[in-house]
Amino acid sequence: MSRQVVRSSKFRHVFGQPAKADQCYEDVRVSQTTWDSGFCAVNPKFMALICEASGGGAFLVLPLGKTGRVDKNAPLVCGHTAPVLDIAWCPHNDNVIASGSEDCTVMVWEVPDGGLVLPLREPVVTLEGHTKRVGIIAWHPTAQNVLLSAGCDNVILVWDVGTGAAVLTLGPDVHPDTIYSVDWSRDGGLICTSCRDKRVRIIEPRKGTIVAEKDRPHEGTRPVHAVFVSEGKILTTGFSRMSERQVALWDTKHLEEPLSLQELDTSSGVLLPFFDPDTNIVYLCGKGDSSIRYFEITSEAPFLHYLSMFSSKESQRGMGYMPKRGLEVNKCEIARFYKLHERKCEPIAMTVPRKSDLFQEDLYPPTAGPDPALTAEEWLGGRDAGPLLISLKDGYVPPKSRELRVNRGLDSVRKRATAEASGPPSSDTVSRLEEEMRNLQATVQELQKRMDRLEETVQAK
Predict the structure, then answer these.
(1) pTM for this structure?
(2) Alpha-carbon span 280 to 363, nearest angstrom
(3) CB-based burial, 363-392: b 16+ in 10 Å, e otherwise
(4) I need a labelling partner for 459 at 20 to 30 A (CA). Which of 206, 254, 328, 442 fits?
(5) Domain range enclosing 22
């Protein structure tokens, strides 16, 4: 009689625990827009979600601890003129968030510590370059102020937020159809994309070259999503020819056959993958589902191991994923999701059952910290670097807010004037530019007066 050996894993018994009612965010109006993004973004300071708004696009930002019923007149971030499709917090500044919208723009916002008191209408910088709606936003994981956006014009733009300029462009010659997903590699040297032309591509964005390409990773016609996972592998979610949902693991050096391909169910929602590089666990969340599946990725066959599934009664309209530094390590929490219901946002903690309250070093290896490893110029110059790691042994304390420095002022006025001078300027344009110049001159005069007063004070002493 043969005995079946059960694979040992410290994550076999991971379980999901939804937060109590008083720890949820109640009475929020989640966006009704049809789009395959998470609609929610979280970090150790704030929770943001895309909400319904009349006369344009808006999203709600709340301090993480401000749970309970949300005031219906709570201030929103409302600078877009059409619905917001995607939002993402900057990994190197917990007060900075970027948003992409149907109005074809990307906006970068700075949220003060403590949250908003008044509606936020003026972004730090507006990034204009797409000709159709912008549905994907992704910050570079290790380079400061580098932001990627993908639009329905089949174009990927990489921005230097510090200058407000598009520094790299991947045009329709790379992606001839709608882009479904974009993901950075851990060191930010490559991006992985999935497209409506049924191809998954691995691209070196600085050179604009396709490093590897896989045609039809899944046979179905529904959208495919792809993310980088550990050791040069990618994971894809998609559909079979019979419309069954699938998850597959691929070696980027040998894309002919998958390392693992598993069929899940026949639901119609697109699966959004979230990968944790510290534990090698990937979580699959489907829009419209009421469950979260999770798998462990190993370096030996069969490579992709099903762990378990968290199920609840209500379906999810979107999902946010907390970075590792925002978790409660004393409770052995290895992941936390923010599940969007129709009128509620519900935190769900993924926990490893352990009896000890001591810090569990095997669960929490050094993880990505908030400091960038490179400047935008270094990355554009060809350098790559992994994230700067921090230990969570003594818990994580968010640093004080860092100012996002953007080169604005006279330069932006001149750039706009130059762009608008290519055709005959309208009287409105001239008036607006003159008004901006007057405001800037008044600011300069006010600063000069302050300097004079300061000099007088120093001389008097």
Answers:
(1) 0.85
(2) 11
(3) bbeebbbbebbbbbebbbeebbbebeeeeb
(4) 442
(5) 15-390
